[in-house]
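[Discussion] Sanity-checking designs against the backbone

I'm trying to build intuition for which residues belong where. Below is a structure token string of 274 positions. I'd appreciate it if someone posts a full sequence so I can compare it with mine line by line.
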């Protein structure tokens, strides 16, 4: 199995697309709000608040054409569109791209720019040079084995003065203690974490100038601990990460808390310009 097919299998194995859409249509017949979808489509550490922080790094008037690499189920895309950004989402997992589109069609955003969905590989972006003003990564880079090539492709599709903004998981000082499974990998074989020093170094080598680097691991841990308590509540949530990951997410959620608490991983924000 190739890296790309294994990655698609990891994310699609427990994905209950028809049940998800039926659940949404049943509970939200007038269409879900962005916050109602968040337990399903904002699966990164930090949820909606983390996406808000990411999008606040950009101005829709000057950097409005945005490529979201590793768009997943599209929570960041729809949130960006609500602020006036013209969002294109790319994901290597076709099942995610298809469900992303179906979810977007159920959300009422009449004044937002139209969205675009593409299934593709970040190391060979199917876009022309200078196509975007901004490129976003949110908990997606750790799934990519050739980060220098991904950074080079990001630089290629950005216009001069373009921005790359990341909300990413990186390896911590105790990465050897990292517990699996985690949402992005079932084992170390398919996890491609870099240290913050390695990642920022690759960005500089790729022609980017760093503008913002921030470690918010403590806030990330506090958020993940709160989410863990909600996930363990006896009531059945309308939507939850288990609709994507199945029962595996019970262990994944616990491991995320432990990995953050023990310094196996960190969560960082990075902004750089070209």
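Best answer:
Here's mine. Compare freely.
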């Amino acid at each position: 199995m190739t890296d790309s097919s294994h990655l698609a299998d990891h994310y699609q194995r427990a994905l209950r697309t028809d049940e998800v859409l039926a659940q949404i249509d049943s509970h939200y017949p007038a269409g879900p709000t962005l916050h109602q979808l968040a337990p399903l489509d904002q699966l990164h550490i930090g949820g909606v608040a983390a996406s808000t922080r990411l999008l606040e790094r950009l101005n829709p008037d000057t950097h409005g054409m945005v490529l979201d690499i590793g768009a997943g189920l599209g929570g960041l895309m729809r949130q960006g569109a609500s602020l006036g950004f013209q969002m294109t989402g790319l994901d290597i997992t076709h099942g995610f791209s298809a469900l992303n589109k179906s979810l977007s069609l159920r959300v009422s955003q009449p004044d937002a720019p139209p969205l675009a969905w593409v299934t593709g590989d970040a190391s060979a972006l199917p876009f022309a040079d200078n196509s975007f003003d901004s490129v976003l990564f949110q908990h997606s880079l750790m799934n990519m084995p050739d980060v220098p090539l991904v950074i080079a492709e990001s630089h290629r599709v950005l216009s001069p003065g373009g921005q790359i903004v990341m909300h990413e998981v990186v390896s911590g000082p105790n990465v050897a203690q990292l517990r699996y499974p985690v949402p992005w990998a079932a084992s170390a074989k398919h996890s491609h974490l870099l240290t913050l020093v390695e990642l920022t170094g690759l960005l500089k080598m790729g022609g980017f100038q760093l503008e913002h680097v921030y470690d918010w691991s403590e806030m990330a841990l506090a958020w993940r601990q709160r989410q863990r308590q909600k996930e363990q509540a006896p009531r059945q949530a309308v939507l939850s990460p288990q609709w994507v990951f199945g029962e595996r997410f019970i262990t994944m959620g616990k491991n995320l808390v432990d990995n953050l608490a023990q310094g196996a991983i960190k969560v960082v924000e990075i902004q750089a310009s070209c």
